[in-house]
Amino acid sequence: MKKVLYIHGKGGSAAEAEHYRPLFAGREVVGVDYRAQTPWEAKEEFPRLFDSVAGQGDSVLVVANSIGAYFTMCALAEKPIERALFISPIVDMEQLISDMMRWANVTEETLRDRKEIPTAFGETLSWDYLSYVRAHPLAWKTPTHILYGANDTMTARGTVTAFAEKIGAPLTVMENGEHWFHTEEQMRFLDAWVQKSV
To answer: Which pLDDT belongs to residue 136?
Structure first.
């Protein structure tokens, strides 16, 4: 049985997998709700989720969104994934944390001293998180296709382009796309990209 594992982004849910069912004829599409908030928690939780979906030698394609894609690369790099489709993936977490520190006007020294600093935009900066990211660079070799919105405020176009080139992934850019693909036009673009990428 060929299966699709859908891994949502922050604030998402397994129910989003319903959208993808019509796009994968002949495959069972499974969404998972996970609890991981950090890459080390994902490393504990995601392999179990993958194994529960994969069963006995099933072929698994992964569709992952935003930080779900980052956690996938952190936790499932050794799993036999047929192909990955990443939508607005976080591909350079150290850069994103550095950006958030700049937005919050927090220096590295202050973060190291205080360990955790809540921000006005709802994210808590964490010294442990930054240290882990630096100590565990991504090593992703799974065949991957990437969809990126040119108006993504989480990841710069140059960052995702460099990452795509590094891993040999075809990169599709929607010029009026955002980090969160949600408008009717954006979803049509996403659906066409999925169908072309499989």
So the answer is: 97
